[in-house]
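User: I'm designing a mutation panel for Type II secretion system protein GspF domain-containing protein and want to avoid disrupting the core. Could you give me a predicted structure to guide residue selection? Please restate the sequence first so the numbering is unambiguous.

Assistant: Good idea. Sequence first, for numbering, then the predicted C-alpha cells:
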Amino acid sequence: MLFNYKALESSGKKAEGAIEAVSLDVAIGSLQKRGLIIANIEPAEKDPWYARISFVNRISNKDVVILSRQMAVLFEAQVSALKIFTLLSAETENPSLRKSLDMIVGDLQSGSPISKALARHPHIFSDFYVNMVRSGEETGKLDETFGFLADHLDRNYEVVSKAKNALIYPAFVITVFVAVMVLMFTFIIPKISAIIVDSGQEVPIYTKIVFGLSNFFIDYGLFLLAALVALGFFVVRYVRTPEGSVALARFKLDVPIIGNLYRKLYLSVIADTMSTMISSGIPMLKSIEVTSTVVDNKIYKDVLSQAFSEVKGGRPLSQALSGHPEIPSILAQMIRVGEETGESGKIFRTMARFYQRDVINTVDTIVGLIEPVMIVLLGLGVGVLLASVLIPIYDIANSAGV
C-alpha cells in the first residue's frame, strides 16, 4: 500500500512524501529508521464509501474457504509464509480482509509466528483455525495443515450452504404470498366488498369472514405491524440472554422435520472438526475444547464442555458422550471402537462423511416435500379467497340478468 506522510527531520526541517509498505505499522517503522519524526501519515487511496458499509465489507465463510485453499496451494509449493500473505493481500478484493492480511504481514515481518498473527483476527480465523496452524508450526507440516484446513472448510461450507439454500426458496415464496395477501385484503377486497354489500344480496359466511379479515387489516394493520416489530425486538433481546440462547438451541433441535436436519448438521460439524484436529496431531482434550467453540448450538456446546470435564477427569470420550440424548448411540459406539483401536481420527472422519451425506439427503427430501405441499396450500389459499369474492359477484350478475 502507498502512504502519504508529513514529518520532521532531526535538523527540524519539514519533510513530506510517499512510502510503499504492506501496512501502516511497517510504514511508520521504516520512516522512524530514517530518523524522521512523523507528524501525519495516511493511506494515499482511501477505501470507497461503499467499502465502509458493514454488509459490503463483511468477510464471508466463502472468503475464508477460498483464502485457505490458496494458502494450502502456496504452502505446498514451498513459498515462504511472508511471501504468501503478501501475495494474498495484493490479490484480495475485500477491503476488510486485505487490511487484516496487511496486518498479518506486518506481524510476520516483526518475527511473530503465523498462529499468533492469525489469532489477532478472531473474526476471520477461529480458535479451531489458529490451533490447527499452531499444530502445523510445532510439527513442521504447515503444508499438510493448510491442506487439512482447506478440505475441512470446503466440506463444511458445502454442507451448511446446501442446508441454508434449501430454506431460501420456501421462505421467499411464503413471503411473497403473505405480501400479496396483505395487499389484496387492504386494497382490492374493500372495493369489492362495497359493491357486494350495496347490492343487497345475501353474503355467504365465508365471504363475511374474508370481509372481516379485510376490515381488521385496514383498522388495526398498523397496530399489528407495531406489535410484530415489538415482538421481534423482544425475541432478539431474549435469545441473546443465556436462557434465551438455550431455548433457541432447543427449539432448533425439537422443531419437526427441520430439527432432525439441524441435529445431523451439528453432528457432522463436530465429527469433521474432531477428525481434522486429531489427524493433525492435536491432543484429544484440546480437540474437544476447540470443537465446543466451533459448533453453533448452545446445547451441543454444553454437551462438549461437560464431556471435556469428564475426559479431563479420566473418563473415555465415548462414555462421556453416551449419557446425552443429543448424541446418537451409534456415534458413541463408533468413538469407543476408535478408542480401542487407536484410530479415533479415522472413525471421526467416517462419521463425518456419514452425517454429511445424511444432511444432503435430508435436504433433498425436505425440498422434494416442501414444493408440492406449498403448491397445494397456496392453491387452497388463493382458491378460497377467489371463491369468496367471485361467487357473490356471480349471484349479483344472475340477479341482474333476471
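For picking mutation sites, this is relevant: Residues 344-401 form the longest helix (58 residues). The first strand starts at residue 2 and ends at 8.
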